[in-house]
Amino acid sequence: MTKRLVFTVVGAVLALGGLATFLALQGLDAADKWSSVLSLFFTAAGFVLALVGLFARGSQQSADHAVTGGSLHQVRNVTGDVVITAGAGTGTAPTASAPADGQGGGGTQSAHGARTAGDLHQIDGVGGSVRVEPPTSSTP
Fold first, then answer.
1. Please, where are the H alpha helices in the chain?
2. What pLDDT score does 21 carry?
3. Above 60 in pLDDT, residue 90?
């Protein structure tokens, strides 16, 4: 677990424990009234967060731990055409053999733990056409 996750879990447990203690000290009738009021605010906050998640599109791009033997392309929100000339690569395999995995969704691009011996293309939101051309030979 990361430190951030541990702090989040500990904070949530403490907050819920504090709320439970507060409601237990209020008595049954007052606790019922408090829980009704708190439910209203938590429901409204959840609705707002759902709307934000529905209409907000993140612009995150990351190559995370990418090690490539070729090239890596991340393209997002281009209104015209995209032409990518694929690299020839070095032919040398990366040090680890973990496959590339496109993580995320909802407006994110990632190549978490990616190690490629060739090209890696992540393309999203292109308003035109996308063409990936083969590498050009440098020998006559």
1. 3-26, 28-55
2. 95
3. no
Mean pLDDT, residues 112-136 taken together:
74
β-pair type (130-133, 60-61): unpaired
61 exposed, middle or buried (CB, 10 Å; 0-12, 13-18, 19+)? middle
Which residue do the tokens 């694929």 mark? 86
The rounded distance, in Å, linking the Cα atoms of 63 and 122 is 10
Return the half-sphere exposure (C-beta side, CA atoms, 13 A cut-off) of residue 107: 8
Query: Taking 60 as the threshold, does the pLDDT of residue 107 lie above it?
Result: no
Q: Which helix (H) or strand (E) holds 93?
A: none
CB burial of 75-86 (b: ≥16 within 10 Å; e: otherwise) equals bbeeeeebeeeb
Distance, in Å, from the CA atom of 135 to the CA atom of 69, rounded to the nearest integer, reads 14
Amino acid at 63: A
